[in-house]
Amino acid sequence: MSIEVKNVFKYYGEQAALNDVSFKINSGEIIGFLGPNGAGKSTMMKIITCFIPKSAGEVKVCGINVDEDSIEVRRKVGYLPEHNPLYLDMYVKEYLDFTAGIYKIKNKKQRVNEMVSLVGLDKEQNKKIGALSKGYRQRVGLAQAIIHDPEVLILDEPTSGLDPNQLVDIRQLIINIGKTKTVMLSTHIMQEVEAICDRVIIIKDGKIVADDTTGHMQHKDEKNLTIFVEFDQAATRNQLRQITNVKNVKSLDDNKWLFEANSDIRAEIAKYAQKNNLLVLTMRIEEKSMEDVFKELTRG
Ligand code: ADP
Ligand code: MG
């Protein structure tokens, strides 16, 4: 087990930012940590990385309790904080060399060069960090996070504020790095979760409201289905509404329809079509987007 969080509470003064949070992340998983602003994502990540203490509960990273050996935990964890605070006056390699020094890495120079090429900073390596675009600054942030070859990577909104091209590049970089590490990443971007993550943990008001695979979450709500159907010829709404258990019918065009139902009514649709000499060319249950799942779980 890479990360174990058990009954964790965090209070800032009177306010509970984390309220009895528990989850586990297996080694090698890439987990999306989702939640609206202020839900407690950064707080949870800072606790796992030993940057702030929790108020109660237990946190273990690679089996090591953060209360017992925070130095060893920090060795196991790479962390890219929100807003990626960097020394803008430092040169890229100077900064990475400085980071390598903190971790007492042997063969510093070689390791820095490895990082530069791993994260694609070759062309920018002689610049000051302040002169880099946001996308390249994120590469520097990722390089400092993995320079000590941690088993676990904690990335707090690593793609926020990037333009669409930078976003794709950084995502790909995370996928590549994630092949050999456990990754927990927070984000607001739902496509990111669909693109990168195996599993999603959703937090709201300091409480976990969902923890499941992305595929499961998108299918879960079996009482609220949308079914896409394409017929070989035009049908009418009034006709289609007669199908047993249909809640609502929406037309995409005369041949293509979306059925809403509280159960899987594909068999009823097929029977109806047969009776009325309609041919079903396509029929499928529509997957919900992660965005819909997120809205349903965090609204209100
Ligand atoms: P997220 O990262 O999901 O946006 P945070 O973990 O940053 O959420 O914040 C969770 C809650 O804790 C918010 O209500 C926030 O205002 C509060 N909070 C975070 N940091 C502090 C702090 N240093 N002092 C007081 N309140 C804080
Ligand atoms: Mg945050």
CATH domain class of the largest domain: Alpha Beta
Report the span from N to C terminus.
Answer: 34 Å
What is the CATH fold-level name of the largest domain? Answer: Rossmann fold
What molecules are bound to this protein?
adenosine-5'-diphosphate, magnesium ion
Question: Could you state the order of secondary-structure elements as H and E?
Answer: EEEHEEHEHHHEHEHEEHEHEEHEH
Oligomeric composition of the shown chains: single chain
- What is the share of helical residues? 25-40%
Task: Compute the number of helices.
Answer: 11
Number of domains: 2
Q: Beta-strand percentage?
A: 25-35%
Shape: elongated
Query: For this structure, what is the CATH homologous superfamily of the largest domain?
Result: P-loop containing nucleotide triphosphate hydrolases
**Sheet with the most strands?**
6 strands, mixed
Task: Please tell me how large the radius of gyration is.
Answer: 24 Å
How are the strands of the largest sheet arranged?
6-7-8-3-9-10
Named at the architecture level, the CATH assignment of the largest domain is 3-Layer(aba) Sandwich
Give the integer mean of the pLDDT values: 92
Secondary structure class reads alpha/beta
Poorly predicted runs: none
State the total count of DSSP E strands: 14
In short:
By secondary structure, this protein is α/β, with parallel strands linked by helices. It contains eleven helices and 14 strands. Helices cover 34% and strands 29% of the residues.
